[in-house]
Amino acid sequence: MPLLNSNDQRNVDKYVSSGINAVERKPFRPWLLLGVILLTMLLFSALAWWIGWFAGVV
Questions:
Q1: Which of 30, 34, 12 is nearest to 21 (CA)?
Q2: What pTM did the predictor assign?
Q3: Sequence-distant (≥ 6) Cβ neighbours of residue 49 within 8 angstroms
Q4: How many whole angstroms from its chain centre is CA 42?
Q5: CB of 52 closer than 8 Å to CB of 58
Q6: What would the DSSP string read from start to end of the chain?
């Protein structure tokens, strides 16, 4: 059983196919994401080491 009547479904189809919400996006680059994650981890690790050294733990 359809949730919309034919007139409403036609309006929805027209809106969806109009492309008004279409956004041009750059292609996904997983290696860049991995690099950013690794760099962030490296910076936080260095910060944690420095805090430990400053506090006299290391």
A1: 12
A2: 0.57
A3: 58
A4: 21
A5: yes
A6: --SS-HHHHHHHHHHHHTTTT----PPP-HHHHHHHHHHHHHHHHHHHHHHHHHHT--
pLDDT digits 0-9 by tens, 1-27 = 568 898 999 998 888 888 877 888 899
The structure tokens 């809106």 sit at 15
The residue behind tokens 């009547």 is 5
Task: Tell me whether residue 57 is exposed, middle or buried, using C-beta atoms within 10 angstroms of its C-beta: 0 to 12, 13 to 18, 19 or more.
Answer: exposed
**Rg for the chain (alpha carbons), in Å?**
26
Among residues 26, 35, 44, the alpha carbon closest in space to that of 52 is found at 44
Rounded CA-CA distance 5/28 in Å is 38
